Amino acid sequence: MVGRKQEIRILNEKYEGTEAEFIAIYGRRRIGKTYLVDETFKGKFTFRHAGLSPVEWQGKNLMKAQLDHFYQSLVLCGAAPDHHPKDWLDAFFMLEMWLQSIDEEKRQLIFLDELPWMDTPKSGFITALEAFWNNWACHRHNVMLIVCGSASSWILDRLINNHGGLYGRVTYQIKLEPFSLRECEEFFQSKNINFSRYDIVQSYMLLGGIPYYLGYLKKELSLAQNIDELFFSRHAVFSDEYDRLFASVFHNAPVMKSIVEMLYTRNAGYTRKEICDKLNISSGGVLTKELSALIAGDFIVKYVPFGSSKREEHYKLTDPFCLFYLHYVRHQSGLDENFWTDSQNTPPIVSWRGFAFENVCFNHIPQIKRALGISGVHSTQSAWSKKEDDPEGTQIDLLIDRDDHVINACEIKFYSEEFTVDKSYYMKLMHRQNLLRRYIPRKSSVYQTLITSYGLVRNEYWSIFTHVITLDDLFT
How far apart are CA 296 and CA 9, in angstroms? Predict the structure, then answer.
């Protein structure tokens, strides 16, 4: 398995332990939660069950369908055929009775996948899960319960941060993150896909290190050909992935999409007040839950722009798949099937890559800090803009504000060759640095930092940069 070494180690340690374990695994849809558990515990499951997707189920009684499906899983795992459970309390009681009947004092591994889908309205699912764990499972030293779900906010609210009967019951939690660039490279190598690091970064701009998406790339095609096949061909694999992504994770998918699509329109994101004004919605508890759910699902981030107060928190869309889909695929049904191959070197796409590379860098802050030699220094990161104070529209792609009184002002450039600083660009950088000094403490220093593909041409202006970070640094 590519990556996930720490997660595998922890899961195996918990399995070999002598305590009852209740482990919750969550993360963005398609991130590989089920694959992680299946590969780690192949052949060791006592009971395995996955909830039915509400997107696929068109019947009226989804709760009954979920219960019937749970019963079928019991039978498939070896339980003797019996009555179909009438509710979730009955279903979990049947599971308890069967597990007791086969108990040989060895570890009993129970895996409940897509747990949020089982919690249909007014089903009493959480109450039954509480009863199962609190009254029975937690008292049996050999029980290990693993639950997964793509609705990260559900896992956080109903399990990990539960204030009722499940308060403090989860013994360990794992948030599964997208692959880093290095892990993407390892994944491609395992599939004998010979992409350059330049192309791997471009694949990240579109697919964001999501293993499920990366698995569709074909080794016999170039990256551009793969993109055309996945997004722009007549029967494109990802033609409806955007809609399915939201429908499978959020019960109010249209509302969540409206927030994401509004955030898409500004690279720096919007404040809470701006979101309310633009969508004509109230700033209450409902919006708080919706924004928290999008953050938990790794669709958006919340940050405070440099020099702003916490009251000016911004919400910014960062999911690469959504960003690419909204920019190039949505409402583009008339595009040629070879659109990306034919257009990849045109000015609009070259410009788009520049913005997309900024997003890649924001997703690799630990690698950037390691390249700067400041991994152990606490810092905050954000973009910075003073267009309202400066007729030239001063903007810095990334500011790393460090506790050791240094600010790295990062210029981010995605080039196919070494970057060259000419006189006009040198003067622009000096102007930005002087403007930035007005807003920082006197004790702080500004280090001009370049993040680019292949480094810097050494000429009379190159020394403006204190540090130069390349693609190879982002792959550490």
Answer: 24
Q: State whether the Cα torsion 93-98-101-106 is positive or negative.
A: negative
Q: Which tokens in the block code for residue 92? A: 């979990």
Cβ-contact 373, 406 below 8 angstroms: no
Minimal CA–CA distance to 63: which of 108, 12, 116, 118? 118
Instruction: Give the lowest-confidence range in 43-47, 273-277, 308-312.
Output: 308-312
Q: Give the number of other CB atoms < 10 A from CB of residue 202.
A: 21
Contact between 306 and 317 under an 8 Å Cβ cutoff? The reply is no
pLDDT tens per residue across span 247-296? 988 989 999 999 999 999 998 899 999 999 999 999 888 999 999 999 99
Distance CA 186, CA 242 (A): 26
Query: In this structure, which amino acid lies at residue 183?
Result: E
**CATH for the stretch 366-474:** 3.40.1350
Q: For 285-294, how does the pLDDT look when each residue is reduced to its tens digit (9 = 90+)?
A: 899 999 999 9
Contact predicate 126/166, CB 8 Å: yes
DSSP state of 228: I
What are the structure tokens assigned to 54, written together?
Answer: 């509400």
d(CA 111, CA 210): 23
d(CA 397, CA 410): 6
From-to residues of CATH 3.40.50.300 in the chain: 5-175
Rg of the chain, C-alpha, whole Å: 25
Contact between 397 and 358 under an 8 Å Cβ cutoff? The reply is yes
Region(s) of the chain under CATH 3.40.1350: 366-474
Q: What pairing do the DSSP bridges indicate for beta strands 270-271 and 143-149? A: unpaired
CATH 3.90.1310 fits 179-363, yes or no: no
Tell me the backbone φ, ψ of residue 110, rounded to 5 degrees: -115, 125
